[in-house]
Amino acid sequence: MKKLIIPLLFFVASYAQTQKTVSSDWTSINQTIDIKTSVKKKFRVIALVKVETNEPKAWAGVWARVDTKNDEDGFFDNMRDRPIKSNEWQSYRVEGTIDQNSKSLNFGGLCLYDGKFYFDKFELFIENDRGVFEPVNILNSSFETPVKNEEIPKWTQGISNDAVVKVKEYKISSDKSSVDGKSCIVIEGRGIKPRLEARIGNVEGASPKIADMISMLEDLKSRVERTVKNMSQYEIDYLHDAEANRIGALVMHLAAAEKYYQVFTFENREFNEEEKKMWGAALDLDQAGREIKGHDIQYYLDIYNEVRAKTISELKKRDDAWFTEVQTRYDWTNQYCWFHVMEHQSSHLGQILFLKKRIPPQPEPLKPIKQEIKN
């Protein structure tokens, strides 16, 4: 009998483990070691660092974090309270503690904003049972093994606790200006605009109370943007359950709600039929809102940015007296209407953060596997 060969296709789904590239105003390098101790012990991380920058807010730091067995907060220090800004090589240290609940020790260097940030000669010391600090071996501690394709041998880079996440604003290379051996590393940040944080008011062209509102609206919008800007289309289209909303749709909802309060407060009217057709699904977030999908995150952010630009332009045309005027339909002042827009952003930011943490890894496309059955 002639052999019959039948190719059978079996589909195997696996999860993507690809390295992400994101946008951020900071980055870091690190190594991790497992920790086992029955008693509390001290440790030290020491490194040589220098910074070359024209950006006043730029700085570097040596950092360390202890991860615990039950995921409680352990020791953490990134030198934020004593930032490194010197353009001369100097030695810096972080000192902390580990105990019986410690699972791992993470350590390395970090940098923020534009500039060149140099790191060399990392050292780690952990206290022994006699209270003496003993050196712990660090692989490629002085970066003598050169950087290749912006990857540092034996080191991990990025801004995530549990994955390699490269930051596109930073380039990493080896450099000859070392103080220990022949090579160090330099992390160069370019084109990063520092955020204005912890500031309310003082907006050019706006009256005092209007300026306060604009700055608060902008602060919350920037938090929304930072939360979603590096999410994939799979992530922003993911639907947690039948009653939930997609993250992309929620960003669109924020734009729609703000658009509604523009016409309500600036023009003293409701949406017209054309505006209802354009914004209704996003505004209501019912079943029609769940059908908002299929766009990358920048699509939604561009709409949000366009709406916000209109808000700021129109608010600057008004003064503080306008804020006290009452919109008779709701018996709300204009100030309260825009306070509602602000706290509405905050409410949905919390929803976005909740949903983001519950998105499962994206399955890879099903791949056919051929298997021959011979008869």
Key words describing this protein structure:
single chain, 375 residues, alpha+beta, 8 helices, disordered N terminus
Structural notes for this entry:
This protein is α+β, with helices and mostly antiparallel strands. The chain contains 8 helices and 17 strands. It has helices at 208-228, 233-237, 247-266, 273-284, 287-290, 297-316, 320-323, 334-356; strands at residues 5-12, 20-22, 26-34, 41-52, 59-68, 73-77, 90-98, 102-112, 115-127, 133-136, 156-157, 165-167, 170-175, 184-189, 326-327, 332-333, 367-374. A hairpin with a 5-residue loop joins strand 9 (115-127) and strand 10. The chain is elongated, with a radius of gyration of 27 Å. The termini are close together.
List the helices and strands and how they pair.
Elements: E1 5-12, E2 20-22, E3 26-34, E4 41-52, E5 59-68, E6 73-77, E7 90-98, E8 102-112, E9 115-127, E10 133-136, E11 156-157, E12 165-167, E13 170-175, E14 184-189, H1 208-228, H2 233-237, H3 247-266, H4 273-284, H5 287-290, H6 297-316, H7 320-323, E15 326-327, E16 332-333, H8 334-356, E17 367-374
Helix content: 25-40%
Global Rg: 27 Å
Q: Mean pLDDT across all residues, rounded?
A: 88
Secondary-structure class = alpha+beta
Unreliable spans: 1-18
Structure summary:
The protein has helices at residues 208-228, 233-237, 247-266, 273-284, 287-290, 297-316, 320-323, 334-356; strands spanning 5-12, 20-22, 26-34, 41-52, 59-68, 73-77, 90-98, 102-112, 115-127, 133-136, 156-157, 165-167, 170-175, 184-189, 326-327, 332-333, 367-374.
